[in-house]
Each structure stands twice: as C-alpha cells, then as structure tokens.
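Database export, one record per block. Field names are fixed; values are copied verbatim from the stored entry.
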Amino acid sequence: MTINCTQQPLRLSQDEFHAIDYLVMGQAFALHNEMGNLWDEKEYRRQLASKCADMGLETFEEVCISVSHNDFTKNYFIDLLISGAVYELKTISVIAKNHEAQTLNYLFLTNSQHGKIINFRPDSLEWRFISTSLTTTDRNGYSLETSKWHPKETEAQGIPSILKSLLGAWGACLSTTLYKEALCHFLGLQLESEHQRFIAVSPNAVIHVSGLSAQKNNLQTNLQKYLRQSQYRELLWINFDRNHIELSCLHDSAKKSFCLIS
C-alpha cells in the first residue's frame, strides 16, 4: 500500500459522527473554560485526549499517515482520532481555508467522510465541520489534460509520466503541495519550502504548480507577466482542479535565445 495509517479512522455516517462529536465538544468547552486560551496546541491535545479516554472513548494522539511512492515518502499527523473520528486542534487567531484544506486532505487520505477543526485560541471556542462524500474510488477517476503541453526543455519531458504514476498510486484531490514535493523529488529538483511559487527545472525553464478551480485566466495573465520579466524563456504550469489536472507551457516569444542564470 502507498497510503498507510497507524490507526485507521472509520467511515462514519453523519449521525454517528455527531453522536461522538457531542461528547467531544462537551469536553472541549470544559477544557477551554478551565485552561483559558493561552496554552500551546499540544497541551490542549494532551488534555482533551485524556478527558475523552476517561469517558471511555477510544482515543489516539498524533496518528501518522504515511504517503509513499517508490523512494518518496511524506508523513502527516492527525492530531486526535477519537472513536474513529478525525479532529484537528489549533491555537490560531481564526480558522482559515488552508486549515480546512489540511483536514480535508486527511479525510481523503484515510477515506473518511467527517472531521472537525477546534480552535482554542479565541476567547470563545471556535470550530469548523469538514465533510466530504468523495471516496477513494471517486478520487481514482481523474483526467490529465496535455493539449497545451509542448515543452522545449528536455528536463520537462518526463513530467506527465511522473504525474500519471503519482495519480495512479494516490488518486486525485489530495494536497497540491504533496504532488509538488513528489514531482520535485522524482525530477531531482530542490524545493526550498512548500510555499515556493517557482521551481527552476533548467536555466531556461521554471515550474509553477497551482490548485485552482476559478480565476485560472487571472493567474495565467500574471504568470505570463512573470515570465516576461524573469530570466526564463519557458514556464511549465501544472494546475490541479479537483479530479482534472491540466499541464500548460507558457513561452516568451520575445526572448530569441535561451538565457543563463547568473
């Protein structure tokens, strides 16, 4: 298996999840009242796990999900798995889209339907339900669009086959960063951070990976502007739109010859 979890979450129905969540949230509210909002995330996690276990709920902390393909491996950690339900704890100013995406990624990786984010930092406890109806079978149905993929650089020729291999192993809809990190690994490229926007594949070409369903035209316009102002002649754009992955090549025709990075 290329996706393994040390403790497998359950594919709970909505009613089953809410029954567990009613008990968990009762303990979370009590904990927030007792401890206040100034502790680190790990302390809330430890205390909530202890309280839930004392109630008889099967509770595991930092459950590892290992995602691998050939010699690439990335580990994720679910904060709490309580009676088969996924919980992510935060100590942040406000729950944002990236936190929702993180939890949704965990649900996809474990073929689960329901999870929850609990944020202990605000004066009043904040939470967010995260749900999906997609199954692993659904995610294994994907399309790879390459009609706009005409790279001039030989270093980029293998990108479609690498992506097909990754999608075949893991399915679609997972974190864009996961695919980006794996792609760089198999291309032998250095990724300085998961937030790195552009990755040089050669002295003349750069890769950009995005995860957009809307505003793709706006992004393309800005990518073209970047290309015109940069030292690169070719921009290799990979966009993950749920189950549809599109590969495009943008070129700067004004640059008559390849330039070198100084």
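Remark 1: The chain has two domains: 3-133, 141-251.
Remark 2: Residues 126 and 204 are 47 Å apart (CA to CA).
End of record.
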